Amino acid sequence: MNQLLAEISEWQLEAKSEDNLRYFYHLNEVDLILQGKKNYLIGRKGTGKTAISEHIAKMGNGTAGIYTEKLSFNNFPFNELYELNNKKYTSPNQYITLWKYLIYSFICRMMLKNPKINSDVGDSLSLSYDIDPISGLRRIVEEWTSNEFEILEIGKKRISKSSSIPWIERVNILEDIITAHLDDSSYHVIFDGLDDD
For residue 75, what are the domain limits? Predict the structure, then answer.
């Protein structure tokens, strides 16, 4: 009993502070998410959403072909996102292009970590993306939607450099790259804290 109490006394209050791989109680929903059969995890505060997202994020180190990127929108300045709308669409669809751009950009970052991806594709993606840990989501969004963007086609033919293509038009370029060069690995972009706004 003393051993059990000593173990419990080490538990943390926040899921992100826990040794998630040690304490995580595996649910069938996690398998459904990893298989792409479920895409949303919705629940009340304290029901384990963050624990599940932390567990999936820690699985994504490239082993077993799983790559993950966790994005926390806690305390994110959503007003800056609201300024990045696509005026071609009416409300509430004017932000779809921005979310696609963010998702595709993070998939491209994860593709850079994948040794199965063609080296020419990796060289091309590395011009606009890197694999360094994210220091701040706000800074990354500002950087990616700025005028700096460069991608090379396979064979080193330049597609775009600097401010020649606005971020809205980059979505199709990234979609084509992902579609043409995606392998059998799984890529998961985990959004956390979207309920703050």
Answer: 67-197
Domain co-membership, 51 together with 117: no
Is 73 found in the same domain as 26?
no
Q: How distant, in Å, are the alpha carbons of 54, 61, 75, 103, 141 from that of 167?
A: 30, 29, 24, 13, 11
Report how far residue 118's alpha carbon sits from residue 154's, in angstroms, rounded to the nearest whole number. Answer: 9
Q: Any long-range contacts for 113-120 (C-beta under 8 Å, 24+ apart)?
A: 113/62, 113/67, 114/62, 114/67, 114/183, 114/185, 115/62, 116/65, 116/183, 116/185, 117/181, 117/183, 118/154, 118/181, 120/152, 120/154, 120/155, 120/156
* pTM, 2 dp: 0.78
Segment 55-85, tens digit of pLDDT: 888 887 777 888 998 887 777 777 777 788 7
